[in-house]
Structure formats: structure tokens, C-alpha cells
Specification:
The structure is a single chain. The chain is an alpha+beta fold. It has one domain (26-206, 241-298, 310-350): L-amino peptidase D-ALA esterase/amidase, CATH 3.60.70. It has ten helices and 15 strands. Strands 3, 4, 9, 10, 11, 12 and 13 form a seven-stranded mixed beta sheet that branches. A four-stranded mixed beta sheet has the order 1-2-5-6. The radius of gyration is 20 Å and the shape is globular. Residues 1-5 have low confidence and may be disordered. Its EC number is 3.4.11.25. This is Beta-peptidyl aminopeptidase BapA. Residues 1-20 are annotated as: Disordered.
């Protein structure tokens, strides 16, 4: 759901030919909810986003998951156990780089409150926190993110998911423009059944000359429009890509952790279409999970539903790539301009390109 709320603005281009879900967000996957907590005060331009895979207790009823590290310049926590065991056991939290520890502690405390046996009669809990560096707009050294912000985002979780300069996306930049949270979904037919793939991204990557929007080399077009833009493009083109993107992919298709690993890798295809080359200083991480079944914490045996055969996964791969690309477009499309630390400012895509609809041949 776009945060822009501008009825006169044309809808963004629809990526691919697969239909989207009714909400156009990751919440089109049944059971998934998202909450934001946004910090917007002078030099503090940051926040927290929490994704809940279902309304129950994720430690007691875990969901299968897998992660792909496309480029590992990142400081996320919890990926090792996801890779080993193939399950989630906390909500997924997103924030800035220096907020990771605070959110991990918040997740641990929340899990212990719900299950006092954790760390005693039961095993310890694996907090899962992803991050991007919002230090250009946000005073990241202030360590402003706290446990309460996680709790607020968790309590705000619903199927009405905002995009743009909200939550963890408040201080993020994308292609030298304002980035942030993006959402999308696609419905894919597999062997006569329809399944939904939803994506939520925390977009904080790229340089302007690289920007490609639905196949249009928009960054190059902008750089060529005026001498000052060309000069700025030349300066930024010489700089290494140092941003990051977190891509969360949810599906209701019955997949196991091995298959979800394969699905998560296809997020890189959607990312690449926007112009990213996964630069040296970029942390590009994708996590995929399925809501089709739960893994009980204390079970002796686990009964799986019939899984999609590997040879039938291609429609889901396509839905993953398209929804991730669409979510990146949504992050740019929905963001508003933000001024933060030391007067640093990131203009939104729409403020930077007033004739965007004409460039992309869209109808208002």
C-alpha cells in the first residue's frame, strides 16, 4: 500500500505479466502482517519495521525459511541458525546498522515473556534482525533505536502495510534518491493451483546513473538532461556502491527450506533488473519463508504437506523476481523527500523528476 496517497499520481509501472494480489504488499500472503515505528525528529531519521509470519507465537510454531547472502557486506544477526535449521523462531526485524543489538535484545525479551522456559528447560532463541546503514540522513551514532520501538512496531503489525519513508526505511537512500520500504506481490499458477509470493524490501543501494525502472535507463536519462546533472552523475558514477538492500520474500506455497533457499536466490534477479551490480560495499541479503505449514517446537515428528515439485517451481521463481523488482520500484515511488543530519537531504523520485510519468510513458 503506497504511503504517497496522491490520487492524481499515476500508478507505478507493473513489472512483468503476473497479476498482483489485492493489497499489492507482502500481506497478500495470508497470515503475514507488518508494523512500523518511525523516528522523525531533526537529525534522527530512522525507525523499525517488524514482519510477523503469522499471528501466533513464532517460537512455538516456527515457519520454514532460508536465506541467501548475495553480497555479505552487512551486520545482520541470526542468519547462521536460519541457514543451519531452516526455520524462523522470532518475527523479522529491520532497522539501521547500529540498532541491531537493541532489537535482538528486544526479540529475546519478548520470546522469554511468552515462553519462560527459553534458555532453561528449552533451547535459547535465535533473534533475527536485518539492517542497512542510514547514516547519511540519520544520526546513527545517537543509537536512538530502543526496545520500545521494536515493541511499538510489533504492536502496530497489520495487513495495512505502508511503503516509502516509514519505519526502518525512514533514513534510507536508493540510487541517490530517497529510498525506504517497498512492497509488492504476485500470484502464480502452479499445477492448477494459485499461490501468492509477496516481497518487502528495505532499499538503500545504488547510484543514480545505474537506475533502471521497468527497463527504462532512467538514471542515464536524468544524467543527460542537463549539464549539472551530467556532472553530478559523473561524480557519483566514480564512487563505489556502498548501500544495501534487505529482501524479504513470503509465500503460501508449500515449500521446504531447501526449496526456499532456491526461491530466495531469485530475489537477486529482481534486484539486478533495477541496475544493481551488488557492489563491494553493498550488503544484499534475501530471506524467504513459507506460511504453508508450521514446525512445532517440541514435536517428535513433523508432518509436511505435499510439497511443490522442484520441476514446477519456475512460476514461483518468476513471481519472486518480479515482486522484488516491483517492491524496489514501490520504495522509490512511495518515498517522500527527507532532510536529516547536518542538513543532508534526499529528494524523492517524484520531487526529482516532475515529468516522471512522461518519461515512463505512464497515464496519470
Amino acid at each position: 500500500m503506497s504511503a504517497a496517497g496522491n490520487s492524481t499520481r499515476p500508478a507505478p509501472p507493473h513489472i512483468g505479466t503476473l497479476p498482483g494480489g489485492p493489497l499489492g504488499t507482502i500481506a497478500d500472503v495470508a497470515g503475514v502482517t507488518v508494523g512500523h515505528c518511525t523516528l522523525d525528529q531533526d537529525a534522527l531519521q530512522t525507525g523499525v519495521t517488524v514482519i510477523r509470519p503469522h499471528r501466533g507465537d513464532p517460537f512455538v510454531d516456527k515457519v520454514p525459511a532460508a536465506v541467501s547472502v548475495i553480497n555479505g557486506f552487512g551486520k545482520s544477526i541470526g542468519l547462521v541458525q536460519v541457514e543451519e535449521l531452516g526455520t524462523l523462531e522470532t518475527p523479522i526485524a529491520l532497522t539501521n546498522t547500529f540498532g541491531v543489538a537493541a532489537l535482538a535484545q528486544a526479540q529475546i525479551r519478548a520470546a522469554i515473556r511468552a515462553n519462560p522456559q527459553i534458555g532453561r528447560e528449552w533451547s535459547t532463541v535465535n533473534p533475527l534482525v536485518f539492517e542497512c546503514n542510514d547514516g547519511y540522513l540519520n544520526d546513527i551514532q545517537a543509537l536512538a533505536v530502543t526496545e520500545q520501538h521494536f515493541n511499538d512496531a510489533f504492536d502496530n503489525a497489520s495487513t495495512q502495510v505502508a511503503s516509502g519513508s516509514v519505519g526502518a526505511g525512514r533514513g534510507m537512500s536508493c540510487f541517490d534518491l530517497k529510498g525506504g520500504i517497498g512492497n509488492a506481490s504476485r500470484v502464480a499458477g502452479v499445477a492448477g493451483r494459485d499461490y501468492t509470493v509477496g516481497a518487502l524490501v528495505l532499499a538503500n543501494f545504488g547510484r543514480l546513473p545505474m537506475l533502471t525502472l521497468d527497463g527504462t535507463p532512467l538514471g542515464r536519462v536524468l544524467a543527460e538532461r542537463a549539464a549539472q546533472l551530467a556532472a553530478a552523475a559523473a561524480a557519483t558514477a566514480a564512487k563505489p556502491e556502498q548501500g544495501s538492500i534487505i529482501m524479504i520474500v513470503a509465500t503460501d506455497a508449500p515449500l521446504d527450506a531447501r526449496q526456499l533457499k532456491r526461491l530466495s536466490l531469485r530475489a537477486a534477479a529482481g534486484l539486478a533488473r533495477t541496475g544493481s551490480v551488488y557492489g563491494h560495499g553493498s550488503g544484499d541479503i534475501a530471506l524467504a519463508f513459507s506460511t504453508a505449514h508450521a514446525v512445532p517446537h517440541d514435536a517428535d515428528f513433523i508432518t509436511l504437506p505435499p510439497l511443490v515439485a522442484d520441476a514446477r517451481l519456475d512460476p514461483l521463481f518468476r513471481a519472486c523476481a518480479d515482486s522484488v523488482e516491483q517492491a524496489i520500484v514501490d520504495a522509490l515511488w512511495s518515498a517522500v523527500s527527507v532532510t536529516g543530519r547536518d542538513g543532508h537531504r534526499r529528494l524523492s523520485l517524484h520531487d526529482s523528476v516532475p515529468d516522471l510519468a512522461q518519461l515512463l510513458k505512464l497515464t496519470p
